[in-house]
Design goal:
Length: about 180
């Protein structure tokens, strides 16, 4: 394990590093299937944009951006973040990108999300963690529900991609509702 911040059974989370750009990171954001529901809206996404994002992310206090790394292979397979951290209202937004398609639907996103939710509630003392996703992103909706998140609302036609609008479905979980051991 290289510089782990949070460690699970199959993956660990560590700060993003500029050398992550030498792997597949940039190609994930230029891959239509991987970034289909991503809101970065920059195509093509470049190495310099990635470098700027990593530097900016490491300096801000309102977000924690981490690489999702397979423990046995030390392979960077995606990113996860708690962003828009609000210390007054004690809330933060969960975002996740699993870039390596070979590792989709194998439980790695859930394991990473449970680690960062636990950190958000136990270490950052957040009261609420939320996420929003396109109504077409069924995988993220299933992940949110499996984490114990509750659908809180819908922003109608708030996401524009591929020349059409989709609703954004909002999910949230409170500290009092989260029980990491039961979510495994």
């Amino acid at each position: 394990m290289r510089n782990p911040f949070l460690a699970g059974k199959n993956i660990y989370l560590r700060p993003l590093e500029e050398k992550d750009l030498q792997g597949n990171y940039v190609s994930w954001l230029n891959n239509e299937e991987v970034s289909r529901y991503n809101s970065h809206n920059t195509f093509p996404y470049s190495y310099s944009e990635g470098r700027k994002y990593i530097k900016q992310s490491s300096k801000t206090k309102d977000k924690i951006v981490l690489a999702i790394v397979l423990t046995g292979k030390n392979l960077h397979i995606g990113n996860i973040a708690l962003q828009n951290i609000d210390p007054v209202n004690r809330s933060g937004e969960l975002t996740i990108l699993l870039g390596e398609k070979d590792y989709w639907h194998k439980g790695y996103s859930k394991e990473a999300a449970l680690l960062i939710l636990k950190h958000g509630f136990d270490e950052l003392n957040l009261n609420r963690i939320y996420c929003g996703t396109s109504s077409k992103n069924i995988a993220m909706q299933k992940l949110a529900v499996s984490l114990g998140m509750i659908e809180e609302g819908r922003r109608r036609k708030a996401f524009f991609k591929d020349r059409e609008y989709a609703d954004i479905v909002e999910y949230g979980i409170l500290s009092s509702e989260f029980d990491a051991p039961k979510r495994k």
